[in-house]
Amino acid sequence: MIRADFAIRHIRQLVACAGPAPRRGAAQADAPIVADGAVASLDGRIAFSGADRDFARDVQLAGDARIIDGRPFSVVPGFVDAHTHAVFAGDRGDELRRRLAGATYAQIAAEGGGIVSTVRATRAASREELVAATRGRLDEMLACGTTTAEIKSGYGLELESELKMLRAVAELSRSHSMDLVATFLGAHEVPGEYRARRDEYVTLVAREMVPAVAAERLAEWCDVFCETGVFTPDESARVLEAGIARGLKPRIHADELGPSGGSLVAARVGARSADHLIFVPEEGIAAMARANVAATLLPNAAFYLKLGRFAPARDLIRAGVPVALATDVNPGGGFSPSMPFAMTLACFAMGLTFEEALVGATINAAWSLDRHDEIGSLEPGKQMDAVLVAGDAIDLIRVGAASIRAVVKRGTIVWGNA
User: Fold this and answer.
1) Which residue from 403, 398, 394, 307 is spatially nearest to 350, judged by alpha carbons?
2) Distance from C-alpha of 147 to C-alpha of 138, rounded to nearest angstrom
3) Domain residue ranges in the chain
4) d(CA 32, CA 27)
5) Which one of 79, 156, 316, 349 has the lowest number of neighbouring Cβ atoms within 10 Å?
6) Residues ≥6 apart with Cβ < 8 Å to 329
7) pLDDT at 209 > cutoff 80
8) Above 90 in pLDDT, residue 111?
9) Does domain 2-78+376-416 have CATH number 2.30.40.10?
């Protein structure tokens, strides 16, 4: 018999997203529904997932087991938010008002706003202040069903400030219910003091920041913002290759504001993920498909930045590129902490089916962070991270409705009730 100390029984719709990762092409939509399902765990690990009739035959519950009546709910895996900038100080609400009045992102940045504005505030903040501010953002994300999130540095742009941000991520990872994955993004922008000597800044990132981050084991990933006017393809490759040499796995901001060459760099260095991709060219898509690079798409950012277009998700799927989703939580354009909102935009602005979007928010997002053996689907051996949805699973994309009733992390309800 299978032993369990936590169970959800008679689930209206169980969508486990079980199976190999990543999902690509037609398999991106592989998310079958089990009616009258059940899922159970022992010590935070899934022990059973399937039909309730099989649960009744195969599972033995501990005397003090927590049992939830799943008849009102659908259950899906906890969401994996694979791209965020959740650690920062300051507020850029004034920039939002300006964009709503017609100013562009590039115009605001040229006038000293954008990333540089957040850098000033973040440099001035203490680690304790960053932790306190970020904790509230993580609480919002958790309430929206996110159980694992990636967080980047990149608002320090000097060694001590970058380390301060990553140390804040480490502290939050130890104390918050969510699992956090840290990414070093010292190459997020060229700081003002290096604008006239940008090559020196690239050298600083590659030769001083990367080794310092690696020495403290503060990050798993290394990222760079490959964009016209920010970092060139060659500069981006230089930073990522420095990270690889120090054990930091590569990912990249690519082709967000124009065809920057970032998708080609991703393929060249073997990045696990290229992110944004709003202007990814055909040759970039083909290169990503050949190199097995995930496309982490951020429709919330395209929406709030008023870019007038979204990433070509259907072209990516047709080419066999695994598609993941993320919120891009950040102070300037990632205003929603909600993975269900990202799924909604993926469906209605990028042409994904609900099943493709759900896979993108769960198992493919987990693969993009190299966590697919632990999270992203509800199958035995993985962490018991789940979202309880009132009604059918597709009700997740009813924006503004209170569809999420509870969030489970490692077999414990950490938000809501059921």
Assistant:
1) 307
2) 10
3) 2-78+376-416, 79-368
4) 11
5) 349
6) 81, 84, 85, 86, 137, 141, 336, 337
7) yes
8) no
9) yes
pLDDT band of 355, cuts 50, 70, 90: very high
Q: Is 382 left (phi over 0), alpha (psi -120 to 50) or beta?
A: beta
Are 44 and 56 within 8 A, CB to CB? no
Does the CA dihedral 281-283-289-291 come out positive or negative?
negative
Q: What are phi and psi of 106, to 5 degrees?
A: -65, -40
DSSP 410: T
Instruction: State the CB neighbour count (10 A cutoff) for residue 281.
Output: 17
Q: Decide if 354 contacts 318 (C-beta within 8 A).
A: no
Distance CA 100, CA 130 (A): 28
pLDDT of 88 strictly over 90: yes
Q: Phi, psi at residue 367, to the nearest 5°? A: -65, -40
Place of tokens 């990933």: 221
151 alpha carbon, distance to own chain's centre? 8
Q: In this predicted structure, what is the pLDDT of residue 102?
A: 83
Check residue 206 and give its pLDDT: 98
Q: What is the DSSP track for 319-379? A: TT--EEE----BTTTB----HHHHHHHHHHTT---HHHHHHHHTHHHHHHTT-TTTSSS--
Phi, psi of 395 (to 5 degrees): -65, -10
79-368 CATH fold: TIM Barrel (3.20.20)
Mean pLDDT of 95-124: 82
The yes-or-no verdict on residue 257 having pLDDT over 90 is: yes
Task: Name the least confident of 15-24, 104-113, 332-341, 389-398.
Answer: 104-113
Question: Which single residue is written with the structure tokens 């987990």?
Answer: 366
pLDDT band at residue 109 using 50, 70 and 90 as cut-offs: confident
